[in-house]
Amino acid sequence: MAKNFEYFDFVPRKQFEIGANELLSKICKKFPDSFSCEARCTFFANKFFFQILFRDGENTISSQTILDPKKDQTNKRDWQIKAIEKMVLHIQKQIESLNSPEYKNKKAAS
Asked: What is the mean pLDDT of each run of 10 residues along the chain (110 residues)?
């Protein structure tokens, strides 16, 4: 399973790259080996497009966000890491819903 972000059209600051990959590694540990992981960040049209995607044969769990340096609060050096932290929380909520009795009952009934 991929445990590093791929970056397109920009070179991340070292501090950001390390922090982003640490967060990705933590969330990857919550998935079974049957899942594949893709994590990428693209800089396009003066915006950062982040995506984390987990897939297996039946399920897809993902989170995306777009950061606009002209609109977002960029005065702190961790503004991009904060966005990835929110994405990880979003993925954790999706994992919880897949493990819920309601989802398991619905899947067993189909």
From this structure: 86 93 93 91 94 91 92 79 93 85 62
Cα(18)–Cα(31) distance, integer angstroms: 21
Continuous segment of H or E residues that includes residue 15: helix 14-28
Q: Do residues 74 and 46 lie in contact, with contact meaning Cβ atoms separated by under 8 Å?
A: no
CB distance 28 to 3 below 8 Å: yes
Q: From CA 49, how far away is CA 29, in angstroms rounded?
A: 24
Which is it for strands 36-44 and 47-55: parallel, antiparallel or unpaired?
antiparallel
N-to-C CA span, the chain: 29
* pTM for the predicted model, two decimal places: 0.83
CB atoms within 10 A of CB 93: 12
